[in-house]
Design brief:
It is a single chain. By secondary structure, the protein is α/β, with parallel strands linked by helices. It has a single domain, classed as 3-Layer(aba) Sandwich (Rossmann fold). Strands 1-7-8-6-5-2-3-4 form an eight-stranded mixed sheet, sandwiched between helices. Helix 2 links the parallel strand 2 and strand 3. Helix 7 packs across helix 9. The structure holds zinc ion.
């Protein structure tokens, strides 16, 4: 980092990220597991629902393989309940699950088909998803991402195109009575190593973002010996502050935005 860049960052005045589009009313967030949105993106969701925007969650799995000490059937039940509670905290009342198997998601037509069906039903303008890249960070030696996130994120980016093409998965038109939906204008990828856009979040949305992660208490308690509150606070506020330093010093959630 150059001396100039460093001093700008210290003053928190630089805005290296473009503003997230705000001229939309319906978003669909599609992720692999309960908790994927709560590790940072949920604060942005809280900001948007507070403005009256409509956000729906779609999860490919129930995260049943995510708790080492809990049998998958029990974990699925517990984690679904935690996800619904966590969505409610940020103003999301509709949460759907696709029932793909946790840990072995496969990128491809089967997953794209199920995601496209929900896009056609909800007709969102903005689709949110989670990092589909190989790693979490951009630098050498960055932590390896999980296979589910890679498969899911890439399938979401593809399914957005599928949803608009009436010749792909056309049986959905006859069977489910849905129409093609080509109205998705952006796909925003959370937790990407290549963020381009950011949305500032206020005090209330940040607080709700933290509360939404804390709803995943069984998962967090199995994951770490740290106090759940301290753990969740360091994750959520750590992310908001990190992106804030790239967005004029305002606590923010950042995304890699693909326009369509
Ligand atoms: Zn995940």
């Amino acid at each position: 980092m150059s001396a100039t860049a460093q001093s700008t960052e210290e003053h928190g005045a630089a805005s290296q990220l473009a503003a997230m589009p705000e001229d939309w009313t319906r978003a669909l967030a599609v992720v692999a597991h309960p908790d994927d949105l709560e590790y940072g993106a949920a604060a942005a969701v809280a900001e948007w629902t507070a403005q009256g925007k409509d956000v729906t969650y779609l999860l490919a799995t129930r995260g049943e393989a995510g708790i080492d000490t809990m049998e998958p059937a029990e974990a699925a039940r517990v984690r679904e309940a935690e996800q619904r509670a966590s969505a409610a905290v940020v103003g999301v009342s509709e949460v759907e699950f696709l029932d793909h198997r946790d840990g072995v998601l496969e990128e491809g037509p089967a997953l794209r088909r199920d995601i496209a069906a929900v896009i056609r039903r909800h007709r969102p303008e903005l689709v949110l998803t989670i990092n589909h890249h190989d790693t979490w960070g951009a630098g050498p030696g960055s932590p390896w991402n999980t296979p589910d996130h890679r498969a899911l994120g890439r399938s979401v980016l593809d399914a957005v195109g599928d949803a608009g093409n009436r010749w792909i998965f056309s049986d959905q038109m006859e069977k489910d009575g849905v129409l093609p939906w080509g109205g998705v204008r952006w796909v925003a990828v959370a937790a990407s190593p290549a963020v381009t856009h950011a949305v500032p979040v206020g005090e209330e949305a940040a607080r709700k973002g933290l509360a939404s992660l804390l709803e995943h208490r069984s998962y967090i308690e199995a994951l770490t010996d740290e106090d759940p509150e301290e753990y969740a606070r360091s994750i959520v506020y750590g992310g908001l502050d990190m992106y804030g330093r790239q967005n004029g010093g305002r606590r923010s959630v950042a995304f890699e935005l693909h326009a369509r």
